[in-house]
Design goal:
By secondary structure, the protein is mostly helical. The longest helix has 100 residues, at 131-230. The chain is flat, with a radius of gyration of 68 Å. It has a two-stranded antiparallel ribbon with strand order 1-2. A two-stranded antiparallel sheet has the order 3-4. The chain has helices at residues 39-129, 131-230, and strands at residues 2-3, 16-17, 33-34, 37-38. It has two domains: 2-124; 132-190.
Length: 231
Amino acid sequence: ELQLLPLVSIKGIDNKIVLNKNVKLDRDAKVQMLGGVDMVSTVQPALSECKLDYANKLSEAKWKYQDSLNKLEVAEDEASAVSSKLQILEEKLARCEETLQGEQQANEAKVNVRTREVEGLQQKVAALRDPVAREEQLASLDRQASDLETQRVEQQRDHENKKTMMLASIAEAVRAISEYEQECIQKVAALKSYVETQKQSFQSIKMHNNASQQQSQQQEQRLLSPQAHNQ
């Protein structure tokens, strides 16, 4: 006894087929019988219906699988966007923490300065309330004033000495410049005198040369005159 139990076909659940193993297969018959059962008209319709149901299920499964892939891709894109936003938020958080740390350090420094100022004021108030400490403070201020006055006198003395030395240096420089100027004037005058002397000497030599040339010409003329007369 063979009972068809397809997974998707409800019609084939009650379809029972009984195969008789003693029935021989008639190869010449138009309808092939297997165990006395017409497989084409009995089994094939149920299997065809099961095949169609399985094909529909497979198509639906493929569509659902593709839809799942699309949703997965969208989810991955959203996850990437969320990751980028998370990274931006982490960077902003790091900058905020750095800024907060810097402001905290600055505030701590300000608090330390204010604390030292308050401590100084408290010490001054305590000194004012204590006569002995006040006298010591006044004595310290007097010593500081005396030291400052001594430094001022020394600096003024040094300034006067430097001023005197500078004025002496300026006077020496002026004297040296004046002497150099006089020396230059004398050299220029001597040079002018030398040029004038050389100029006069040149004029004298030039006049002497001119006179010599005239005498030579006159002598040549006298020498040539008898010859011209004889001719």
